[in-house]
Amino acid sequence: FDGWTEFxxxxxxxxxxxxxxxxxxxxxxxxxxxxxSTLVNRLIGRRQAVVEDVPGVTRDRVPYDANWNGRRxxxxxxxxxxxxxxxxxxxxxxxxxxxxxxxxxxxxxVDATVGATDxxxxxxxxxxxxxxxVILVANKVDNAALENEAHxxxxxGLGEPHPIxxxxxxxxxxLLDLILAALPEPPPIIEGGPRGPRRVALxxxxxxxxSxxxxxLAREERAVVDSVAGTTVDPVDxxxxxxxxxxxxxxxxxxxxxxxxxxxxxxYASLRTAGAVEAAEVAVVLLDSGEVISEQDQRVLTSVVxxxxxxxxxxxxxxxVDADRRFYLDKxxxxxxxxxxxxxxxxxxxxxxxxxxKLAPALRRALASWEKRIPTGQLxxxxxALVQATPHPVRGGRAPRVLFAxxxxxxxxxxxxxxxxxxxxxYQRFVERKxxxxxxxxxxxxxxxxxxxx
Length: 454
Ligand code: GDP
Ligand code: GDP
Prior knowledge:
Layout: E1 25-30, H1 36-43, E2 62-68, E3 71-77, H2 88-102, E4 105-111, H3 118-130, E5 134-139, H4 147-151, E6 162-163, H5 172-182, E7 198-203, H6 210-220, E8 224-225, E9 238-242, E10 245-250, H7 253-257, H8 259-262, H9 266-279, E11 282-288, H10 295-306, E12 310-316, H11 323-336, E13 344-347, H12 359-370, H13 376-389, E14 402-409, E15 414-419, H14 425-439, E16 447-452
Parallel strand pairs: 1-3, 1-4, 4-5, 5-6, 7-10, 7-11, 11-12, 12-13, 15-16
Antiparallel strand pairs: 2-3, 8-9, 9-10, 14-15
The chain binds guanosine-5'-diphosphate (2 copies).
Keywords: GTP-binding, Nucleotide-binding, Repeat, Ribosome biogenesis
GO molecular function, one term: ribosome binding
Domain EngA-type G: 24-187, 198-371
């Protein structure tokens, strides 16, 4: 299983526009004191505190989640470039370039009460080269009398200047409409809304005890429910009440009839597994605690992880485990399940009913991780510290920098790292491992992909 993590290492430029593509990115650039952070506050509706300027701490490229008329996007506040750096032009280019390169559109802020400066003009050259859509904002136009000042900014050659007052909110709604028009359509927000019972796949190779467990659950809870108000349940599924909640075990018709013992080359068993996993949100993979973890078990586990479903591993037939077996099983787990240390494990017996009541809480925990969203601010605070403490190794005199990250989606959680170049697979796995250490995601696969700026 050496190639294990490869499935989530795909560089995802092709993913743009797909349901799990990250929200489009808007960069806000301009000289210091033109009102960028005031504007960003305005754009994000002050739902998140924009970091105050602290001497010595750059506010460079801090991303925030924004949402306007139900469309979400990410605002990257670029701080200010240093107008009095020694090599001013280079400083401007370096500061703003990375942010602009990763952005889908740029808001270029100019202080209308000051007018266009030579620093602004230098920035315009760079903006033109980027070929990104640019919205020219004339800020600090606090009243109609100041509108004339904004007209002077036509001279920048970026088209119409849009007069606003970031401080008072004047014309900020119009600006948001312009921004949305300039950004590509974001992925739809799938979360929320009424939801039927949680869909669970009960999978594992033949004879691990799937039918026994389903029967046990049905018997123990006495109610295999036939319907839940307001939902239609596929006739091949079973509704089972566990721990006060109704769960939908998908594609259990075969289990109930116990056909899979008679029929069934492994090929058909694996098709059935794939179908059930696809239809489910979370999979319970049953393993036979009395037997070594086999290739076939591994294939079942792989199918769950590759499908991106939450995962609970149930070591069944625990009634047969003695101290001796326990010892070897621990070693096996360490060796065979090394690639999925995050999977939640329960030791059960479908035969005696041992610990079967632990299944529902385990499923809930796995699903919570599967749907977890890390706020962008929190994610980037953590990331900044991480890449500072452990930067990417230098290769051929260069090391790509990780600029920032966003969570592109949930179910499972997907993260996109925006970088100045491709990352080593090893470094990417390092970030992924640290991400888990920090935020958990117990019971859920996560995906980390890289978007290198062009
Ligand atoms: P940044 O360095 O570009 O992020 O600028 P700030 O957002 O920190 O703003 C610099 C100063 O300009 C602050 O004192 C703001 O209160 C002020 N400011 C920002 N927007 C406006 C505006 O629309 N009108 C006026 N009058 N002042 C503003
Ligand atoms: P399936 O093919 O995965 O559906 O497995 P079954 O439920 O048909 O079980 C296969 C065999 O294992 C049957 O003989 C069961 O009685 C037995 N079995 C299932 N669960 C347990 C358990 O927890 N302990 C023991 N000792 N036997 C079990």
